[in-house]
Amino acid sequence: MSSQDIPEETPSSEQDHAHGAVAVKDPFADPGLPAHRPRVQDIDERAARRSERTVALLFTVSMLSTVAFIASYVIFPVDKIVYIWPFGHVSALNFALGITLGLALFCIGAGAVHWARTLMSDEERVDERHPIEAPPEVKAKVMADFAAGAEESGFGRRKLIRNTLFGALAMVPLSGVVLLRDLGPLPEDKLRHTLWAKGKQLINMNTNEPLRPEDVSVGSLTFAMPEGLSEHDHSFQTEIAKAALMIVRIQPEDIKDKRELEWSHEGIVAFSKICTHVGCPISLYEQQTHHVLCPCHQSTFDLSDGARVIFGPAGHPLPQLRIGVNDEGFLEALSDFDEPVGPAFWERG
């Protein structure tokens, strides 16, 4: 076959042009937004009201969970352990707090999502890009869009949702306020009172026997605690730290303070053993001068003159306990201390 018999090949572009161009689809073309399909809530008001009640129920459950969270602090003691399957033995307080707080937060989130998915407008809109600066017309558009969004959300119309949402959001922060309770025990008025009360006998801390006036000799120093308090009690250290008492017998004519003499019995006086500086126990007594010395920082008190401070950093005298004798001849308290014992504290007034 000669070269003349071989047909010339036409370039593909020329062939395409000769036979008609074939359109090639751009793989990155913008498909555009799908057609909007209305939801059942958009066309059925009864379905919309069901969704509204569902959202309100979730917000209401959140409020009740917050109340349960706060109540858990009152109901469950810190040391209570319970068995809960499948968690095993857990702290009842921690478990209750976790469940109630988690449920409160979950219901707010679930209610907001359900509200947005079923009642708020779901129509997609294209907003062309614009410069960062906001000219007046853009600001006006934003405000108009905001007003339209508020109108479409039904926030103004659906008062049940709005009110329950406000209630849930207002109550959830209370959980954080209650958590402040864990900063420590509330002082209340515990620092102002001790176990001493009218009729409580003075118990010798060495013999654990009630004291009689004849058991206290002139110049001696005796330590006492309230009747009913035992070293085996769980709260012994806490209570004795406030109620520890030291008893001395002074000749009545040597007592200089009038109230001290009135609150004594035959020269037997009872003062708090807790130093008013930093709370150290006082144990050093000088019988000639009737002075007691705190071994920690050498605060010195005159027990013949209302236990006033005569040396050292203590800020005020030792509190005195008013005492007497009961029908059986035992020493007893006639009241509690009339002021807080130990160091000064900010509640003192």
UniProtKB/TrEMBL annotation:
Iron-sulfur subunit of the cytochrome bc1 complex, an essential component of the respiratory electron transport chain required for ATP synthesis. The bc1 complex catalyzes the oxidation of menaquinol and the reduction of cytochrome c in the respiratory chain. The bc1 complex operates through a Q-cycle mechanism that couples electron transfer to generation of the proton gradient that drives ATP synthesis. Its main location: membrane. It is a multi-pass membrane protein. The cytochrome bc1 complex is composed of a cytochrome b (QcrB), the Rieske iron-sulfur protein (QcrA) and a diheme cytochrome c (QcrC) subunit. This is Cytochrome bc1 complex Rieske iron-sulfur subunit. InterPro entries: QcrA_N (IPR045603), Rieske_2Fe-2S (IPR017941), Rieske_2Fe-2S_sf (IPR036922), Rieske_Fe-S_prot (IPR014349), Rieske_Fe-S_prot_C (IPR005805). GO terms for molecular function: 2 iron, 2 sulfur cluster binding; metal ion binding; monooxygenase activity; oxidoreductase activity, acting on paired donors, with incorporation or reduction of molecular oxygen. Its cofactor is [2Fe-2S] cluster. SUPFAM superfamilies: ISP domain. Residues 1-40 are annotated as: Disordered. It comes from Streptomyces tirandamycinicus. It holds the Pfam family Rieske. Keywords: 2Fe-2S, Cell membrane, Disulfide bond, Electron transport, Iron, Iron-sulfur, Membrane, Metal-binding, Oxidoreductase, Respiratory chain, Transmembrane, Transmembrane helix, Transport. The chain crosses the membrane at residues 55-75, 95-116, 160-180. Residues 237-332 form the Rieske domain. Residues 1-13 have a biased composition (Polar residues). Belongs to the Rieske iron-sulfur protein family. One of its GO terms (cellular component) is plasma membrane. It comes from the Bacteria. It is found in: Cell membrane.
